[in-house]
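EI: anyone free to look at a 226-residue chain?
SC: sure, send it
EI:
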Amino acid sequence: MSVIIRTQNVKKSFPLPGREPIEVLKGVDFEAENGQLTILKGRSGSGKTTLLNILSMLDEPTSGKLIISDVDTSSMSMSNKEKMRRKDIGFVFQSVALVPIMSAYENVDFALRLSGYEGDRDRRIKEVLSIVGLEKRMHHMPSQMSGGEQQRVAIARAVSHRPKIIFADEPTGALDTATGLVVIKLFKELIERENITIVMTTHDPNLMDWGDSVYEMEDGELSHVK
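SC: here you go
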């Protein structure tokens, strides 16, 4: 296996009016290997979402380095970072964030258009919706779907443009345990089938055994537990 994303002594502080800045990340060293499911666990407020935002270049560290595919992102222009996010990265959120006035098919198509996907969009949309088991629901609206089905559409959308890495922030947080396990099993299948890397946050201890690698975040400090 090769390391696809890593950090070196990443720190993140947020300013507070009239007070010292609050240090949310305290020198984090992290690695995720290509083709694996890496889990970041930790309580709410531990700093795991802040780290995920930095790993996915949605936010910048106060200091330290983020290296993706052997490229130091601190040396990249903002436009090249945006291009990497659009082409090489997919996102899955707890809130699913589907466009409510678009069907499952249209939500995936919208993501493909935004990414600049150059292949056969219709074929790819049907392929990824079939992978997540929703080929018969592709023309349904989000309001006509269960929470688990909506999350599977979100996963299909995230993987549709063939990214290298998917970042998932509490993707099972709004789901019951059984439905959450369906999502994790789907992640494992996608890693094998699509040759992608998935980094996800969770506070659910029932999911830890599914991670190829597990980190724990506590009070802004990261430890490798598996």
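EI: The chain has a mean pLDDT of 92.
SC: 👍
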